[in-house]
Amino acid sequence: MILKLLRHFNRAYGYAVFGIYLVAFGIAFLFIFIFPPATLALLFISIFGLIFFNVLGFALRTIERRWNRARLAKGLCPECGAAALSAVVAGAGEIRCGACDARHDAQGAWIKPVVHEPEPVQA
Ligand SMILES: [Zn+2]
Fold first, then answer.
1. How far is the CA of 84 from the centre of ligand 1 (A)?
2. Is there a domain that residue 18 lies in?
3. In angstroms, what is the span from residue 17 Cα to ligand 1's centroid?
4. 14 CA distance to ligand 1 middle (Å)
5. Which residues pair with 89 in a beta bridge?
6. CA of 103 to the centre of ligand 1 (A)
7. How far does residue 79's CA lie from ligand 1's centre (Å)?
8. Which domain covers residue 95, as residue numbers?
9. pTM score > 0.70 for this model?
């Protein structure tokens, strides 16, 4: 349950941080006319906030990877919990789940599935 929440949060983390910065931009833009020093303060807070969000994202990804590694070591898929996985893609060090087709690398990081674009139909 917690791992599932963490996984969803990690996959949406970039969008969440972008949303926070978009809101901060809107607030800063409004404060240009009301109280200009607040805009400057928000600018510096957001610049140093990048370091904070970067470290936080790294920590969350590390926690998820460790959790995934522990489940992979037990022979369980971190995504669906099925025991019928471990079809290793030759040479790449990838572990693929046979039930849900999720792939993870040797460090436990989730590998985004490659979606092939359909070939254009020629008339
Ligand atoms: Zn699976």
1. 8
2. yes
3. 28
4. 24
5. 94
6. 8
7. 5
8. 2-111
9. yes
| Residue range 5-52, pLDDT digits in tens | 999 999 999 999 999 999 999 999 999 999 999 999 999 999 999 999
On whether residue 122 sits in a domain, the answer given is no
Total of domains in the chain: 1
Supply the DSSP string of 40-104, one letter for each residue: HHHHHHHHHHHHHHHHHHHHHHHHHHHHHHHHHHTT--TTT--SS--EEETTTTEEE-TTT--EE
Q: Give 54 Cα–ligand 1 centroid separation in angstroms.
A: 29
Tell me, in angstroms, the distance from the centre of ligand 1 to residue 123's CA. 40
CA distances for 4 relative to 26, 29, 32, 78, angstroms: 32, 37, 41, 9
81 Cβ contact partners less than 8 Å away, ≥ 6 residues apart: 71
Does residue 116 belong to any structural domain of this protein? no
For residues 34 and 68, give the distance between their C-alpha atoms in angstroms, rounded to a whole number: 49
Residue in the block written with tokens 């995504």: 79
Residue 121 lies in a domain: no
Half-sphere exposure of 96 (CA within 13 A, CB side): 10
